[in-house]
Every structure is written in structure tokens, then in C-alpha cells.
Amino acid sequence: MNLRQSIFQAREMLLDYEEKRLDQQRQDLVQRALQNDSETQRTLNNIRKGLELAQEFSKIQIEDDFNQYLQISENFSSTLKKYSHFKNWAPNYRMAGYIFGIFCSIGLAIYLVPADVISKLKVRPQDEIVLSVVKNDSNPSKLSDDPETRDAQLLAAQNMDSDDENDSDNASSEESSGDEGIVAANTNENQNEDNTPNSNLRSKTPEPKVQAQNEQAKAVTNLSDKKQEGYVYRGTMRISDLDENSKLITEHIKSLGGEKAGEVDLGWRKDNKGSYYHFTIPESHFDNLQEFLHKMYPVKFSKDPHPRIMPDGQIRIILWVERVQ
Amino acid sequence: MGFIPTRELSRKVYLFFLLQILDVELSTQLAQIVLSEMKSKLDQSEDTSEYRDDYCLKICFETYQAHLKKIQQARLKNLQSKSEQIPWKDHLTQLSPLQIQIWNRFSRQARQDEISSLLNTKILGFNEEDVSEAQGISLGTLRFRLARATKVLGICAEAET
User: Fold this and answer.
1) How far apart are CA A223 and CA B53, in angstroms?
2) Which residues of A touch B117 (CB under 8 A)?
3) pTM for the full model?
4) Which residue among A47, A53, A78 places its CB closest to the CB of B32?
């Protein structure tokens, strides 16, 4: 170990040397450094002065009055000063303070915010919505996922805008000749037997319609006047050999330029009880179609008003071909 | 009856804050907080001889840390004042003006942890092991800081004389 290292180490041990805490070996090291280095000696002198001064400071006493003041008033003033700081509160009280502060803030906000601002945040009354909902026949939320069933539901919904009396009459007359019967009514009949959603549709739809008509009579009248411009042909047939004749009817309709007007294809089978045709055809071919169908059954078509408007030269036909046992 | 702090204990606690903060009002307040806390906690134990120096030191250091921001502001304000305007000059009449000046100089030149080490061991007379445990440092670190503080105090004393 060289002299510089020993002096450096000795300076670090001066306090221990002064307090006589060193072993003999280290003590000799410090003494050698003190002999050889004046800076080390000066540091030792400073340490000695510091210790003397610290000794004088240790004799400081406080007055009795002040001491009593510290002891007597500690329970009240110190507690008061201590808990004047929110951070010094107990955790439970601090949490209660936070909650109280939040409620006060909310109450203050409600008190200060003008009432008209709050009223603007309210939802508008539903009378404006009811009108559009009622008049929307093809509400997707009510339709079945099955395309075949969906078209029948659409048909049922459309028929609800037509004469309700016809629907109720046809629902009761199952065995009538059916020439003047409306297809949709029979369709609804069959659907009511088997298809619960359609029956629900029938049961539910009239109510909001009635409400809307009572509440918004003028508006409904205006709207319905506009929707009365369109029309649909409805007819019913009863034949025995359904399978063969359905194919013939389908082919003939297509040959005359007919195309399906709804979701289901031409000749959609409803539980093997009949075939359903919902199609558009050029108006000029309507007579040809009637002649063809008359060979199978003396069908008569009724022209009913409907909101759906077809392009000029095109007509829309709903034909129900029922199987006769 | 409960725990009653002795005069010696009150003195130590008060000087612990006064000689570090150099502010009479704040030191009084913090000393009262420490003594009340000690009283409340020791009253829960039936035997008052449970009091120990390390317990007192622990509460002192915790209180110091809890009010650190306020302490630093007060300390800074008092250190910047001139020697004739030392706020606590008249409070400790046993100290001469020179000694007070030396301590003021020492408070400006030494680090806070060194001042604390010197104060707790050499002035207040606490055990070094208790001080190191309360501060959360090793004994060697405490001795190192003590040595530096003692040297600086000696240098300040030489400068003022």
C-alpha cells in the first residue's frame, strides 16, 4: 500500500480514531498519516472542534413553561393541527370525505346547471316515431329469417292495410267457392294454423295502427291517400293435381315475362297445401294468363288498392293455388 | 394513567425539529404531534416502560417525512435570513450568538442527512443503532455521514471565529 492510499484511508477513520474505536493496526496507520500529512492533521482538528461544539449543543435545555406547554396542550392543539390536514385523517374518514366531496360536487352541478340544458338532453316523445313505425309495413325486425316465410309475412303485413273486413270474412269462410276470396286472407288462414309469427303479426299490428289513426288522423289520411294509387290483383284457385299444374302455371307465367315480386320464388309451396305465386307481369299479357288459368279453374281476380305502385305497363298479381283433396 | 412524556423526552423531540428546521412555530407544532402520537399509542399498552428510544425516533422521522414540504419551505426561509434576524435566536438563550451563527452556517453548508446524523447521535444522545434503524440506513453509512458532518461543523466553527 502506498502513502497516498494510506493517507486517504486514514482521513476516513479520523472520527473513529478520535473516539478510540480503532484497533491497533489502524491506529498506527492514522498516526503515521497524521505525522506525514498536514491536511490530515487539519481535518482531525476540525473534527475535534465539531465534537466539542456538538457537546455544547447537547446541553441545551428548554424552559419548564415551554415544556409544560408541549405536554399539556398536546392533546388538543396538536390534535387539532394534526387533523386540520386531510392527509392526516384516518383512512376510513378520508374515504368518507372523498365520497362526501363527490356528492357535494354532483349536487352543486345539478343546482348550477340551468334546467333548460337538462331538458334538452331528454329523449323526445315517441309520437313522432309511432307514425313512421306504424306505416312501415316491411319492418325487417318482424320478419322471419326464412325467405319463404318472410314473403308470406310481407304479404300478411300488406294485407293489413287493405280492408280488414275482407280479411275477417275470408278467415271465417274456409269452404267458400273462393272465387272472390282474397288470396292473402286464405294465406293468412293457413299461416295462422301453422306459422305462429304470422299470427302474432296479425294480432299485434292492428293495435298500433288504430292508435296512430286515432292520434294522427289527418296525417294518416294524407299518407294513405298517396298510397292508394297502386293496386294488386288477387286470385284463388282450387285444383286437385297440384304438382303437375303448379309446374305448368310457373312455366306459363315465365313465358309471359312474369317475374317474382316478393322474396319467394314462383310456386312456393306452403306445407304442400298449395302453391303461392307473387309476381309481376306485363299488363298486356294479363288476358293471356287468365285464359290459361281458366282451363284449370274458373279463377277471378280482384283488383285491390295497395300502396305499392308498379311501373306503367306492369301489374302485380298474387295467386294462391290450393290443393283440393 | 397512561404514558406521560418526560421533560427529557420533550426536550429531545423539540430539538430534533428545531435544529433541523430552524423554525420555532413549526417545530412546536411537530413536537406536539409526535408527543401526542406517542401518548396515544403507548396508552394502548398497559406497561409504560414500553417506551423505547427507537420508537420515539421512528415517530419523529415519520412525522418529519409527512411534513417534508412544509419543513423545506420553512428551513429555506430561515436559512436565507441574516444572522441578526435568526427567528429562533432568542428562543434558546443558553446558546451564544456565535454558536447560533455557527449552526446557521453549518445548516447551509452540510447536507440534511449529515445534519440529522450529527444531531441525533452527538447532540440528542440517541444510540447509533437506533438512529440507523429509524432512518433505514446501515451503521457504516451513519458513521460516514457523522464523520463528514463533524468535519463540516468544525470548519464552520473555524470560519466564524
Assistant:
1) 94
2) none
3) 0.49
4) A78
